[in-house]
Amino acid sequence: MSDDGQRKKQKDGSVRCRHLLVKHSGSRRPSSWRQENITRSFDDAMARIIELRAMLEKDITLFSDLASKESDCSSAKKGGDLGRFTHGVMQQSFSDASFALQVGELSQPVVSDSGIHLIIRDE
Predict the structure, then answer these.
(1) Is the confidence at residue 4, as pLDDT, over 50?
(2) Strands laid side by side in the 110-112 sheet
(3) Where would a tag sit more exposed on the chain, N or C end, judged by fewer CB atoms within 10 A?
(4) How many of the other CB atoms lie within 10 Å of CB of 86?
(5) Taking residues 42-63, what's their average pLDDT?
(6) Contact partners, residue 78, CB within 8 Å, separation at least 6
(7) Under a CB-based contact definition with an 8 Å cutoff, are residues 79 and 63 in contact?
(8) E strand segments, the chain
(9) Quick check: 71 and 80 in contact, CB under 8 A?
């Protein structure tokens, strides 16, 4: 099956992903379990995501540990695991990025209303 055919089939089904979220002052809810009032700028959040991605490029097995410590999402308690979801359930940019990934692939930084994400597709 072509990549386009595989991606179309994925959109009809579901994926399982983990993510790491870095929020900034412009996030739709600039607070988290880690910090009550997030004041970092978008640029600072992006710089941190780029640092974390560089670490993961060297050792992708660190993803769950980094998400547990660094993510501003409550899914950090589960190593960033979001479980299975269908296309369109998450914010558009997040959903599109998740379904575009191959299993085991790490995304580039993904910007959403929640902040900036790194996503890895597990299934």
Answers:
(1) no
(2) 81-86, 14-22, 115-121, 110-112
(3) N
(4) 14
(5) 97
(6) none
(7) yes
(8) 14-22, 81-86, 110-112, 115-121
(9) yes
Burial class (CB in 10 A: 0-12, 13-18, 19+), 24: buried
Q: Which residue has the higher pLDDT, 12 or 43?
A: 43
Residue type, position 17, single letter = C
Single-letter code of the amino acid located at 26: G
Q: Which residues are catalytic?
A: 19, 73, 91, 114, 117
Reading phi first (left if > 0) and then psi (alpha if -120 to 50, else beta), residue 95 is in: alpha
Provide the pLDDT for residue 12. Answer: 52
The number of residues making up the chain comes to 123
CA distance linking residue 7 with residue 74, whole number of Å: 29
Place of tokens 């269908």: 86
- Mean pLDDT, rounded, of the chain: 91
Tell me which H or E stretch contains 42.
Answer: helix 42-58
Q: How many CB atoms lie within 10 A of CB 59?
A: 10
pTM for this predicted structure: 0.87
Give mean pLDDT, residues 18-32. Answer: 97
In terms of phi and psi (left: phi > 0; alpha: psi -120 to 50; beta: otherwise), the region of 104 is left
Residue tagged 């660094």 (tokens): 70
